[in-house]
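Support reply, case 0932

Customer input (verbatim):
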Amino acid sequence: MNGKRFMYTAISVFALLAMVVSCATPEPEVIEKTVEKIVTQVVEVQKEVTKIVAGTPVVEIVVETKVVEVEKEVVVTATPDPSKQKPSVFNAAYPYSVPPEGHFNAFSSGFLSVGIYQGLMEVPLFYYKWAEDEYIPMLGTDYEVIPPDKLVVTLRKGVKWSDGSDFTAADVVSHFALRRLLQASVWDYLGEVVATDDYTLEFVMAKPALPVIRMVLRNEHITPASVYGEWAEKAQALFDAGKTSQDQEWTDLNTELGEFRPAERIVTGPYVITSLNNVGEARLTMDKNPTSFWADTVRFDQIYSYQGETPVVTPLVMAREVDYATHGFAPAAERAFKELGVRILRPPIFSGPAIVFNMTIHPFEMPEFRKAVAYAMNMDENAFVSLGESARNHIYMTGVSDNFIPNWLTQAQLDEMEKYEYDTDKAAEILESIGFTKGSDGVWVDDQGNPCEYELTVPAEYADWSAAAENAAEQLTKFGIKTVMRGVTYTQHGPEVDDGNFELAIRGWGSGNPHPYFSIQVAFRTHNLAALKTGGDETLPGISYPLERTLADGTSVDIEQMIIDCPEGLDMDAQKGRVLELATIFNDELPKVPLWERYGNNPIQDGHNTTGWPADDDPLFKNSPYADSFVVIWILDGTIGPIQ
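Our regenerated output:
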């Protein structure tokens, strides 16, 4: 780290800690209480005693002790005022959009979802337990898959929104209508959503598919018809009229919905952001929602969420101002946490960072070049310097987590996958086979005579990804692909990649959803919107990887359609062959090069401000800390609480 960078970091940390102190929870006010206290004292009392000595009376003076009441003393004590006692707070940390960019419209960019903590406000129908492969009832109490095409969900009765109105099936129908307007992936398979009564819904699949179960039960945070019903009715009218996303009326309503700004947030969960005034630059506050079904179960009065990425949150953890965080902390920061006695969790995340390529730039469109990049890098080294114990080599290079791809492919099939083990000779051989030569300066020259000199961008605030990018640039440069790393603020990096404004970039691979379909979506569709026929955007070229293409063996494929078809049907065994086809294409084409698979290094202040945290071997720690947050589940069911 150079001097200027160190000074900037130090100043930032001190400024941040000062800000934290300024916004810390105030000490409780006290009142004076007057109490009368009786004071006693032991005293000596002289007393004459007459004795008969040798027949003669003799008077003696003796001293006795006795306890006497001296006075009534008035004692003034300070006792807490019950009305002003410090509320119990869970201190979270998660990036969010600060107003005026941030707002309460759940169907528009800039929505204040607060990441995993949205589940404390807009509760999903169910959460999921990875270890047991079962769903945890939330707004839903039961579900049943009825072949050939129905998912029936029973809703919880007695749930109220924060405005006091009842939660019913009408809210779910409204929510899914707007998700259809936004062309959510679930509508690639759904045909209609029908409320058969106030607490029963039928999700009728036009194209039955296993991921629909996950999409419906877990992935949607249900919103109120009282707020969005007007828009849902307009959307349904378009559907009934046969309009599609290609019609102007559809586009206009989508735009109109996106511009809507609700004045307040209406939720079913036990916490709510009551006003945009409670959303600051450094921290937001969620207050207790007394009407919630979970209001009497949760043990915290408030939730604070500190704003910012890893450089901002690291000193907050060090100052013990944050009870739990999911950021990718640098190994040095993790060591410092441990020295403070902070407990570190390592749950699987089922994803990680990857190098993505702008394939409008030669030679990135060539699979051979991308393969050479994979061989030229020591992924174990990259993993270790980036995240220490919490990064592991992605062995099978399928774009699907090594944690669950064995549930879908046999070991023999996995053994057929190219592992891309570190081999610079192999990388050089591949480049030479496509007409590349190495210059006298050690830099490779492509088949068109251009030196292989590129820029690799990365979200600057992601400490683990930044370390991965720096190491990748060093390794590639050493190999002869001269690479310079440049950090871009994390809020801009994704949009720049979508715009095609990059050469090489670090973005994500994988997904914390149990069906490979979701990871395959990320592998081929994410940051590739202009290539999509459904749900795409021709103004956002991204990586520009054509999905209709001819493979190395001469086979013509439509990868977008293959992805849609992949989860078709309700029989898992019947889908395994389709998963194999797409995993094999990814392994052979490498539309992105995964660097490693991430595990959490999540600090928890167990025993400092919070208590009730289960042991490290608890099955719920098999959940992703993002997709099925064990912390949110444990707050909702009262497992985690404040130290009284």
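We compared this against your earlier run and they match. Two observations from our side: The CA atoms of residues 72 and 118 lie 58 Å apart. The chain has 17 helices and 27 strands. Please reopen the case if you see a mismatch on your end.
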